[in-house]
Structures
1.
Amino acid sequence: MFFKRLTIASLIFAAAAFAANGARVAGYFPYWLQYSQFTPDDVRYEFLTEIRYVAMVPSEAGELALADESDLANFEKLASLAEKNKVGLIIAIGGAGNEESMQGLGASDEALSGFVKSVKETLKKYKAAGIEIDWTPEEAGDIETLKKIVSALASADVKVSANLSNDASKASSYGHEFFDKLSSASIYFTDQMSEENSSVAPNANLKKAKEVIEAYTSAGLAAQKIVPIIPMYGKSFYKAKGLGSSHEGVGSGNEGVLSYKDLMKAFDTPDYKVTFDEGSWSEVAVSASETIVFNGIPSFREFAKYVKGAGLGGVALYDLSGDHNEPIVSLLVTVGQVLRPDVNYQPKKKKK
């Protein structure tokens, strides 16, 4: 009975914290969008609380630089528009392929000190709200380095988020002290199906994500700090007949990857039968030649309702270029209607 009362009290507290602090609805803007038709002007800032730019990378001395210097104009425009629209700019640091640069910060106190200084200068210059450490180490030594980096930043009054492992067994590897220093914690629930899998599984199993999140809250991470990251793209597999079936490699799209907005175009034809899988909170599209696993409006809505009910910090969408612009089929709008219902999601009237 005591446990039951405690559980109810915890849920009430979580809901109250959610209402008081408001939910984050974040979107990612990677530097490689400069090579697409999606620009900072295309971002729907009115539907966001945060925009996360990917990425900057520290040098051996700890000085920050853009992962791709040719994206400077885009980044500066994004920072300017984020400020103008009162959307928090979060700068992701690290990213895939830059693991050594992050490891180096733990090996040199001088480099770490230079890194903290460079972070503070960068945040001030671009009026950014904070940073996200885009590095998810698995080895114990690297996790200690991550803790050291976060501790140094937090001690310098930097609002720092960190990407945590989506392996539930790793939740206890971080510790309360580390969790307390974070302003938020991101957990990627993307790319859970690849060509290496012999049978088709969801691209993002959002029901299983609950187990991971609950492992972190049990390990001492405050629910209101957790911001799950979910994908706005799907993956195709040739000759597959649905979830659990075998396949013969990737199917249509860019090496088997299709943005959500491109999926909506493909599904305008009668070629695909699309269903919602209750067991994974994900969508499956099957045609005569392939199966596509993705997350659409039903799964985004169910997950957003879970986020709200559990008092989590919000949701981050990866990445903004993949969404559909029409509000009625937009994933950003779907999430927003649950987490930020006071926002006007009606399409803007075109100027005559």
Note: Confidence is low (pLDDT under 50) at residues 1-21.
2.
Amino acid sequence: MNQSFFIAAVGAHQQLKRLGVHGNNVANVNTYGFKAEKGRFTALMYGNTQAVEREDMPYGVGTALWHTDTDFTSGPPVDTHRDQDYMIDGDGFFAVVDLATNDVTLTRNGSFYMSELKRDSGEVDEAGQPIIKSVWYLSDQEGRFVLSETGGMIEMDPENPHDPQPVGIFDYNNYNGMQHVNDTRFRAIEKNGGLRVGTGKLIHGMLENSNVDFAEEISKVIETQRAYQMALRMVTTSDEIETTINGLRN
């Protein structure tokens, strides 16, 4: 089969992956704290053969979506006037912990809620049974709890939920390579450096909207669709050439 067939087939497949990246950005244009992703392509084989001094060595068989970069620039503020909404003006993240796994992840989505936990009070009743009390904490309403400035969970008074809470802001030296956990949560890795206190300012009653540029993403979607169509035309043309050559041989 002609080499052009495989180059075009790989190209079409990779453009589909790129379309998924931009489609996900468009789908989250109104998701609080969402950070847009941008696909980065690389030439296949070229990087592994550029030092080989052989004229007959092929220098590239198409391109591939190598990785996606996350745009961590701040999104526009949204004034919600809600008691448990928080926004970071500047650098940093909120930290939330999953008590089942002790996994701590980072987010810019400050839409929080009060969640109830049943805790042993350390006392017993007349029958000698432990007394269980309800304690309310600030959470993301998905089973994770928000960490305070000192790294502990934030206990709240359900009778007085209006006061601002000491929500912690945490940061890293660089964001390159942070793992996506879901659309708005990230997990730091070793290359991000050591954890430090964030320099951003905590704002109560506001949220950070998605930083997706809708017009740019739609143009990228159209561009990717055109590239996909061209790759498929190349596949069809290459197949027709191969069919013609086989016909001549017969």
Note: The CA atoms of residues 50 and 247 lie 37 Å apart.
3.
Amino acid sequence: MRVLLVKMSSLGDVVHTLPAVRDAVRQGAHIDWVVEEAYEPVAALAQGVHAIVPVAIRRWRRQPLRCLGEIRAACQHLRKGRYDLVLDAQGLIKSALVGLLARGTVRAGFDRTSIRERAATLAYRRRVQVPRHAHAAMRLRTLFAQAMDYEVPTGTPHFGIAGGRATRDHTVLLHGAAWSTKLWPERHWIDIARRAAAEGLTPTLLWQDPLERARAERIADAEPRAEVCERMDLTGAIDLLGASRLVVGVDTGLAHLGAAMGRPTVMLFGPTDPQRTGCLGERAVNLNSELPCAPCLSRRCRHPDAVATSRPVPPCLAGIAPEAVWRLASAAMQRERSG
């Protein structure tokens, strides 16, 4: 079966798609994958994917006239092939429209009770119902299986990518996030950096924008053995994560990727729900807040303490103690050392 998969973003979502891709390839599917150009290196990690079709929807929206040639070329690329199945695993109007550009015998996606944007279902002939509150990776495995008529897999998801192997004594600290409500206090990051350094590990800080860089530099100023990386692309981040001893991060795509590569990973959850989007992997641990209002799934903290003090870090994450994080991190590293 020739399949065109439309799953364009975000980074964590693309990572969570890898187990479903592995399932489908093992069932004999021949998959081409439409993905945002920024996340192409992750799609390239999937074994058995025949071709990757990069798009740049976000950039094209900002400069449609300047990018007209790119848009035309992408449309022509999508029209070249003929597919038995066009599978929209994104569930948005924009992804449904991308799928409509391709020539496919059957178009499939989530049904109205399972999808994020219901209007997208108008583009599908086959609509699949999946549990809304299941983990994202399991939702996708169910979608793929029912759309391609094979039994829904059970058991632990496997990402189908080569596992990382620690060749550097680095602890990667992923302190940045798209939501301000996902941030962990700087003082806690400094504490973790010091604990890592005391164990002979180099605390390594990534950043993507000037605010994250400034935070990374403040953490490194407090722990001289810490390193602030130069800004790196996703390929560089993949190499760093795969070679590191430990990954500690808030709910961000790079932390999901580290866990998927088999690295000891601790991910911190406040407003988001680890039952639905937690990191997965043999050495991955999710640590969530015990506040009753968490997870609120909100980009804006409405907890009375945060509102009264205008605190940049929500109480749910501020309450996760560095000692608890490091205890879990140490146990994850020990499990790797013991095989």
Note: The first strand starts at residue 2 and ends at 6.
4.
Amino acid sequence: MKRIYLHALPVRIWHWINAGSFFALIATGIQIRYRDLVHLTSFKTAVEVHNFFGFLLIANFILWALYYLLSGKIKVYLPDPNLKNFIRGSIRQARYYAYGIFVGEENPHHASPDSKFNPMQQVAYFNIMLLFMSLQILTGLMLWDIKMFSGVIAVAGGLKMVDAGHLFLSIFFTAFLFVHVYLATLGHSTWTHIKAMFTGYEDEPEHAH
């Protein structure tokens, strides 16, 4: 095994702020929407906490974008421009997730600082960070101040459409958290990937590098 420095400190800080904000937003969002069924705290407090972590998530997203764009590391999220290589890599990775992992086969993708994600992860994270997260932030801002964003809300199809979009994306991100945590346990040991998000270092097979 070879120990590689995979996650820089800014990435690790962003990751855990993002994770904490997600859990806080999900918990308070459930109470806000189902105020008659869930009583974690007062409705007013739930709204205030939801707004605080919403803006924290926005600030964190901006810092993430600036870091990856200015450092040039945004390429780790971009799929291989060679379509054949991308399709071939995606098929290999899908086979591994569906079959290989259960019979002890080696992961076809070996992470490195310049190639952190396999083809399937690249597509997923690219859409999650650049499309779904942007839409969640935009709909959240519109619901935060309906009057200020009334023009944008009208263009988006009205308040019900904005609210439905925000709810759908919230459900998607909640489901994504469960999948993300599960996939994080599929390293050489249960805690390999999780530990790496604290230390920055991960062990990879020597021959892979």
Note: The chain has seven helices and two strands.
